[in-house]
Each structure stands twice: as structure tokens, then as C-alpha cells.
Amino acid sequence: MSDEQAIRDLVAEWTRATLAAEVKRILPLMTEDVEFYLPGQPTMRGRAAFEKGLRAVLASHRVESHADVQQVEVSGNLAYCTTHLRVAITPLAGGEAMRKEGNVLSVYRKNAAGQWQLARDANMLS
């Protein structure tokens, strides 16, 4: 499998695991030192911080997303990916879904085992 296809598969697996609310499937897809950049919010640093935040959301909401990967560029053990992302966050108790849409720029790093992992993610959803 090509590096580009491996990254596309990682994005698809992340989407499926989030919909299934299976946090343990998502965690290995990112580096320990992952950083998430969100507009108007402090940088979220580290896998543990992401896990805590995601578990809090999934305890009360269903998260459904559609990731349309626009491009993947690989150079050695680093790669970047641009994605158009649509997300619907629906309260489990019922009610209207919050919908967000926008572009994401993600940086991936290949680990010692040869697997790609998300290292940096700049999310421009609004």
C-alpha cells in the first residue's frame, strides 16, 4: 500500500471509530505529542488531552463526520493532508444537531513501526 493510501485509510478509520464512539481505536492513530489547533481556542496538546475531551463529548453526543480528502503529499517520514470536513454533533438525549464544516490541514509522521500517525491538526471548521 502506498503512503498516500495509508493516510487516506487512517482518515477513514478515524471517521468510522468516532461514529462508533470507540476512542481506543482512535488513540493509536495519533502521536503522543499530537497538537490540535482550533480557531479561538488554546492549542490542545497531547494524546491524553484529546482522549479526555473526546470521551466527554461522546458521553452525551453522537459525532458523525464526512471527510473528503483533497490532497496528500508525502516527503520521507512526514506528510500533510488537506481535507474538507463536515461534522454533525447530535445530543444523545435528543434535539438539534450542531453542524460544522470547513477545511483541515493535518501533518502526519511515520513512526518507528512504519505506521502513519497524526502529529498536528489545524481545524478551520465553523
Descriptive notes:
It contains three helices and six strands. The protein is an alpha+beta fold and 126 residues long. The longest helix has 17 residues. Strand 4 and strand 5 form a beta hairpin. It is globular and about 45 Å long. The protein has a six-stranded mixed beta sheet, with helices on one face.
Tell me, what's the shape?
globular
Radius of gyration computed on alpha carbons: 14 Å
Spatial arrangement of strands, main beta sheet: 2-1-6-5-4-3
Tell me roughly what share of residues is in helical segments: 25-40%
Work out the number of β strands.
6
Ends distance:
34 Å
* Mean pLDDT across residues: 97
Number of DSSP helices?
3
Beta-strand percent range: over 45%
Order of helices and strands: HHEEHEEEE
Largest sheet: 6 strands, mixed
Low-confidence stretches: none
Q: Helix/strand/pairing class, anyone?
A: alpha+beta
What are the salient characteristics of this protein?
globular, single chain, alpha+beta, 3 helices, 126 residues
Task: Please describe the topology of this protein.
Elements: H1 3-19, H2 23-26, E1 30-37, E2 44-45, H3 47-58, E3 61-75, E4 78-91, E5 98-110, E6 116-123
Parallel strand pairs: 1-6
Antiparallel strand pairs: 1-2, 3-4, 4-5, 5-6
What is this entry, summarized?
The chain is α+β, with helices and mostly antiparallel strands. The protein has helices at 3-19, 23-26, 47-58, and strands at residues 30-37, 44-45, 61-75, 78-91, 98-110, 116-123. The mean pLDDT is 97.
